[in-house]
Amino acid sequence: MNFLEILQFIYNSLVFPGLLFASVIGLLYIGIDRKVTGHLQHRIGPPIWQEFLDFGKLMTKEDITPAAAIKPVFVGAPLLALGSLAAVMLLLPVASAQPSLRLTADIIVIIYLLNIPAISMILGGYSSGSPFAIAGAGRYIVQLLGYEFVFILSIATIAVKVGTLNLTDIISYQTANGWLLLDWKLLPAIVATLIAAQGKLLRAPFDIPEAETEIVAGPLTEYSGPKLAIWRTAYNVETIAVAALLVSLFLGGPTPYTFGNIQIPAIVDFLIKTFLIVMLTTVVRNIVARVRIDQALKFYWTFGVLLAVISMILVMVVP
């Protein structure tokens, strides 16, 4: 790797489509999410730039580490989560069908990296020494065992249909054959993927690890100041990363369009599609109530797995 390639990799990692781009878009989308939530609940809601203000406020607050905490784990957990998500953005098509970093079976790597924020939050909760954080971390472990199998099985069904574990090839397949969303055999798996994504993003009815009316903020109870700002940024980036993965899997990925003489770049298509997916999760979290952890686990291992298995059978049996 020469010097220019190193500079390009650093730019991709820190600016676009990595940390800076994903953080800004994530802050904006979550700000809109909070505004829409306010209107759905017959409130005015905060301004859409409130997330930016909150981030700035947290960065200026005192950074406190509990005396009972395991300091290296407690401090390193949010950094590890944010770093893994910045790496995910390099593997996701954003401005074209080609990601900044292409691997042979990048779906496997993406699934692995998307689990690191959850594991980091669990470690951060257990290392804090707070009973509320430990309770939230315990719930997160159980929920992770529920949604992750459904998520992987649903994505595997899409991979079996296309015959590849590479996102670029999946997008190329959709360019030639149409969106996978329109394939009736994959519809159950797509519904299961959306359900699993709701749990992965800790959105109602699966916001169980962070149930503020029961265990304060769950694993994040003892976090404050810059460390809490990093956690919130990591959550925002994860929202974009999961939405971008779903766009690539069954919405054709980022695609350029031409209307008359106007060329619409692929990045605009990417932003529209990811925004619609985020808004779908917003609507769902405002029309359903939080379930218990046992109910969530039962739901994923019955209804979620059933949908994914049905779709897998259809893909493998029906020509």
In round numbers, the mean pLDDT is: 91
The CA-CA distance between the termini, in Å, is 45 Å
Please give the count of helices: 12
- Structural class estimated from helices and strands: mainly alpha
* Topology, number of strands: 2
Brief characterization of the structure:
Helix content is 70%, strand content 2%. It has helices spanning 3-14, 19-40, 50-60, 71-91, 106-128, 131-162, 167-177, 187-200, 212-215, 225-250, 266-287, 293-317, and strands at 257-259, 262-264. It is built from 12 helices and 2 strands.
Task: Write up what this structure looks like.
There is one protein chain. The protein is mostly helical and 319 residues long. It has one domain. Helices cover 70% and strands 2% of the residues. It has twelve helices and two strands, in the order ααααααααααββαα. It has helices at residues 3-14, 19-40, 50-60, 71-91, 106-128, 131-162, 167-177, 187-200, 212-215, 225-250, 266-287, 293-317; strands at residues 257-259, 262-264. It has a two-stranded antiparallel ribbon with strand order 1-2. A hairpin with a 2-residue loop joins β1 and β2. α3 (50-60) runs antiparallel to α10, α4 (71-91) packs parallel to α10 (225-250) and α8 (187-200) packs antiparallel against α12 (293-317). 44% of the residues are buried. The model has no long low-confidence stretch (mean pLDDT 91).
